[in-house]
Amino acid sequence: MSPSSARPGQTPGWPDVSPPEAPRESHEIRQLGRVRNDAYAWMRFIPASGTRALDTLPYRLRDHLLAEMRYAQEVLQPLDPDVRRFLDRLTAGAPQVREPALDACEGWRYHVLPSEGGARSVFARTDAGGRTQRLFDEAARAEGHAYYRATDHQPSPDDRYFAWAEDVVGDDRHRICLLDIGSGVIRTVVRSDAFGYGGLAFSPSSRYLFWIWRDAHSRPTRLYRSPVEGGRPVLVYEERDPAIFMRVARTAAGGFVALTLAGPDTGEVRLIAAGAETRPPRPVRPRCRGVRYEVEEWNGALLMLTDADGAADRKLLRLDPATFLPRDELVPHRPGVPIVALRPFAETLVRLERAHGLHRLVLMHADGRETRVGFDEPAYCIEIAAAQPYGAGRMRILHQAPASPPRWIDVDLADGRRRVAGQAMPPGFDPAAYCVERIEARAPDGETVPLTVLSRRDASGPQPVLLTGYGAYGIAREPDFSWPAAVLVEAGFRYAIAHVRGGSEKGARWYREGCRAHKRHSMTDFIACAQHLMRIGYAAPGRIVAHGVSAGGLLVCGAMNMAPQLWAGVIAQVPFVDMLNTMSDADHPLVPLLRPDWGDPLADPEAYDWIAGLSPYENVGRADYPPLLCTAGLKDDRVPYWEPAKLVANIRRLGTGGAPAVLVLNPDSGHQESDEQSRAFEQAALFWAFACRCVGVTVPPGRTDPP
Question: Which residues on neighbouring strands pair with residue 420, listed in sequence order?
Answer without folding.
Answer: 409
